[in-house]
């Protein structure tokens, strides 16, 4: 898929997150996985191919992205993977009725700072419902001024940095892109902070 609009392109972050899933493929069978902001759904498709029970989601306001999720499933022989419309920061019947999850995936969802709190509000809601779950996310470093640290603190979330070399994703070809600009990719795992703040 080569279309540079949001949700219509396999962004470098998706490739790196897919590599992380592939490196952990032995632990995925039977895991309940939700991908948020899925777009063309590369990480979710990889998780499903590795035996996870996957649900894909993107904004209910972006029907073309939801169609792309379904198309990716069909093209990868995964016709039964559910696709739901979830808009970050909005409590909806779809969000409330989600099945329990073990892993939440998000590649390059931290793209526009105006969305950061809505994303973390949704992630917090899901982690509160599933306290054992983790949010595995990759993001592209676009500005040194953009940070989610204060929001993580506000929502009582903690993050753990995952070095790309720990899962062989530090190779230039993995995160390369024909798009202009820097493509420094980072990965972190976000979970609920314990009551002592750790």
UniProtKB/TrEMBL annotation:
Database matches in InterPro entries: Methyltransf_16 (IPR019410), SAM-dependent_MTases_sf (IPR029063)
Q: Which GO terms describe its cellular component?
A: cytoplasm; nucleus
Q: Name one GO biological process term.
A: methylation
A Pfam match: Methyltransf_16
Known catalytic reactions = L-arginyl-[protein] + 2 S-adenosyl-L-methionine = N(omega),N(omega)-dimethyl-L-arginyl-[protein] + 2 S-adenosyl-L-homocysteine + 2 H(+)
Task: Drop me one GO molecular function for this one.
Answer: protein-arginine omega-N asymmetric methyltransferase activity
**Coiled-coil regions in this chain?**
none
What is the annotated quaternary arrangement, including any partners? Interacts with HSPA5, HSP90B1, TUBULIN, UGGT1 and UGGT2. Interacts with TET3. Interacts with STPG4.
What role is this protein assigned? Histone methyltransferase that dimethylates histone H3 at 'Arg-17', forming asymmetric dimethylarginine (H3R17me2a), leading to activate transcription via chromatin remodeling. Maternal factor involved in epigenetic chromatin reprogramming of the paternal genome in the zygote: mediates H3R17me2a, promoting histone H3.3 incorporation in the male pronucleus, leading to TET3 recruitment and subsequent DNA demethylation.
Q: What is this protein called?
A: Histone-arginine methyltransferase METTL23
Gene source species:
Calonectris borealis
Q: Which gene encodes it?
A: Mettl23
């Amino acid at each position: 898929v080569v279309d540079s609009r949001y949700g219509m392109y396999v962004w470098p972050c998706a490739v790196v997150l897919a590599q992380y899933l592939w490196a952990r493929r032995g632990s995925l069978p039977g895991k309940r996985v939700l991908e948020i902001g899925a777009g063309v759904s590369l990480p979710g498709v990889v998780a499903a191919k590795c035996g996870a029970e996957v649900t894909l989601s993107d904004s209910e306001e972006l029907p073309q992205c939801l169609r792309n999720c379904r198309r990716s499933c069909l093209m990868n022989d995964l016709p039964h993977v559910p696709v739901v419309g979830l808009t970050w920061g909005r409590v909806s019947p779809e969000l409330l009725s989600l099945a329990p999850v073990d892993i939440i995936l998000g590649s390059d969802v931290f793209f526009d700072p105006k969305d950061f709190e809505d994303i973390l509000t949704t992630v917090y809601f899901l982690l509160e419902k599933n306290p054992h779950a983790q949010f595995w996310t990759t993001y592209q470093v676009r500005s040194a001024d953009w940070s989610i640290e204060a929001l993580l603190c506000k929502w009582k979330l903690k993050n753990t940095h995952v070095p790309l070399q720990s899962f062989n994703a530090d190779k230039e070809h993995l995160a390369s892109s024909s798009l202009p600009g820097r493509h420094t990719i980072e990965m972190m795992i976000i979970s609920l902070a314990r009551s002592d703040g750790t």
